Recover the amino acids of this structure.
């Protein structure tokens, strides 16, 4: 298990986890979501190939409607 931060909260995940697996584990919606790892936006088509590393800082932002 490796430690990462997700939206400022510490979480332990299996080594080799990718963004897609992380979103599934934390029950995050996958539509209307942007993901950044260490301040770099990761395009949705790369979520399955981008593996997370020890101490990565992940930011998940849910789009909302409003004005």
């Amino acid at each position: 298990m490796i430690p990462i931060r997700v939206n400022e909260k510490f979480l332990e995940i299996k080594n080799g986890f990718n963004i897609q697996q992380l979103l599934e584990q934390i029950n995050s919606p996958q539509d209307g979501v942007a993901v950044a790892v260490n301040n770099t936006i990761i395009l949705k088509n790369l979520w399955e190939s981008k593996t997370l590393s020890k101490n990565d800082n992940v930011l998940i932002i849910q789009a909302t409607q409003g004005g």
